[in-house]
Amino acid sequence: MDGQFLDLMTRIGSAAREAAAELAFAPPEQKTAGLLAAADAIDGSVDLILDANAKDMDFARGKGISPAMLDRLRLDGGRVAGIAAALREVARQPDPVGRVLEEWDRPNGLQIRRVATPLGVVGVIYESRPNVTADAGALCLKAGNAVILRGGSESFHSSVAIHGCMVLGLKKAGLPEAAIQLVPVRDRDMVSAMLTAVDYIDVIVPRGGKGLVGLVQREARVPVFAHLEGICHVYADGAADLEKARRVVLNAKTRRTGICGSAECLLIDRAFYAKHGAVLIEDLVKAGVEVRTEGELLQVSGTVEAQLDDFGREFLDMIIAAKLVDGVDGAIAHIRRYGSNHTEAVLTEDDAVAERFFQRLDSAILMRNASTQFADGGEFGMGGEIGIATGKMHARGPVGAAQLCSFKYLVTGDGTIRG
Fold first, then answer.
1. CB of 89 within 8 A of CB of 378?
2. Rounded Cα distance, 17 and 274, in Å
3. pLDDT by residue (tens digit) across 297-330?
4. What's the pLDDT at 69?
5. What's the CA gap between 341 and 362, in Å, rounded?
6. Domains by residue range for the chain, with CATH
7. CA distances from 191 to 6, 55, 88 (A)
8. Which of 106, 107, 183, 294 could crosslink 150 through cysteines, CB 3.0-4.6 Å?
9. pTM to 2 decimal places
10. What is the SS3 string spanning the chain?
11. Tens digits of residue pLDDT in 56-93
């Protein structure tokens, strides 16, 4: 790796460490003021942000990026307003630092409290979505962490414009500007520099496609909050309500195809198929979705034959795999084999089926009669998220401010000694 990137990482990392030490005891009111000022700056910079995004969109089209990825990148007035609204929502959240998670007294006279504390310095590596610049910055600040942001090359100008608004908020609140830093270069060598910066970064959060997450998991020496592919399944049980199922399946696939909560596989119980036929697949085909399937379902007009690797693939496009299964156990077996432990939905009016689905699958998010597109920290009331963690260590599911905390034990005695 070129020495200039190591030098840049050292400068950024050292500044982040200093900022994190100050943020660890910043009053909640000061952090809230910084977030609200940043939201105001976003509102006042709409034209600047949209001009920057237009440059990014031209760059991305030149790279031949898919329509779904372009949708992730694209900003408009409504989406910029949504970024500001998310900052205000995070500002309204209870401050997670200093929460007493548990407390107890011991027979030896000690009083013990387990208290939430910041992680320190968080590194976020992401692709395409410029709103992550604001979401990640806000959530880390709320949790008392400094953050180093490395956005995708295609979202560079948008991220710079949004980051400028975040820094304005920090300045107005009297918080260290290095609390939210954006890597100022596009070079991929900075990703490697972050992954090995054990002296400066406490945890890495990758947010992007399989290639990015795989690279991070292979090369990181810093601990990682894994965010694997969103291979989300929707299972239509024999006891599903037809109209609910039709609404949910269409929304889960087509609302936004480029997000990790988009459904990538539809599993239909043979009992549902016997009652209602191929209506769910017909709805998808009419909506312009390419349905890749096998067996009896290939008789449905407009479907195409699935290849073996279509099951277990994150399409992030107007494409879905579909398959008939034998009841909830057939659906569970399929998801265990092909899923990524992200989000799965069961459509059923049978409580026992729903309970079995919830109990026997171990994905980070399990839903009943609801669209997988709700797999989002903002929709969970967290104000936003850095990503959906699919691992099992520390954070899992939407990673909001509370999940960006660790804890310490505070032990009080009264001249207490151990015998």
1. yes
2. 61
3. 999 999 999 998 999 999 999 999 999 999 999 9
4. 82
5. 7
6. 3-225+399-412 (3.40.605.10), 232-374 (3.40.309.10)
7. 11, 23, 30
8. 183
9. 0.85
10. CCHHHHHHHHHHHHHHHHHHHHHCCCCHHHHHHHHHHHHHHHHCCHHHHHHHHHHHHHHHHHCCCCHHHHHHHCCCHHHHHHHHHHHHHHHHCCCCCCCEEEEEECCCCCEEEEEEEECCEEEEEECCCCHHHHHHHHHHHHCCCEEEEECCHHHHHHHHHHHHHHHHHHHHHCCCHHHEEECCCCCCHHHHHHHCCCCCCCEEEEECCHHHHHHHHHHCCCCECCCCCCCEEEEECCCCCHHHHHHHHHHHHHCCCCCCCCEEEEEEEHHHHHHHCCHHHHHHHHCCCEEEECHHHHHCCCCEECCHHHCCCCCCCCEEEEEEECHHHHHHHHHHHHCCCCEEEEECCCHHHHHHHHHHCCCCEEEECCCHHHCCCCCCCCCCCCCEECCCCCCCEECCCHHHEEEEEEEECCCCCCC
11. 999 999 999 888 789 889 999 999 999 999 999 999 99
Residue type, 52: A
Residue partners of 290: CB distance under 8 A and separation at least 6 = 304, 318, 319, 320
* Whole-number Å distance between alpha carbons of 85 and 71: 20
- Here the tokens at position 272 are 């549902």
Nearest Cα to 160, choosing from 146, 150, 173? 150
Q: At what angle do helices 46-62 and 156-173 cross, to 10 degrees?
A: 150
Is residue 388 within 8 Å of 399, Cβ to Cβ? yes
Which residues fall within 8 angstroms of residue 214, CB to CB, at 6 or more apart?
none
Residue 162 gets the label, from left (phi > 0), alpha (psi -120 to 50) or beta, of alpha
Residues in the chain: 419
Residue with tokens 């034209």: 47
Q: With contact defined as beta carbons under 8 Å apart, do 123 and 147 qualify?
A: yes
Tokens linked to 218: 């292979």
| Closest among 223, 225, 244, 224 to 234, alpha carbons compared | 244
The DSSP bridge partners found for residue 408 are 115
Here the tokens at position 156 are: 């560079």
Residue 360 identity: R
Question: How many of the other CB atoms lie within 10 Å of CB of 218?
Answer: 8
Digit-coded pLDDT (tens) for 381-412: 887 788 888 887 778 888 889 999 999 999 99
Closest CA to 41 of 82, 79, 78, 84: 84
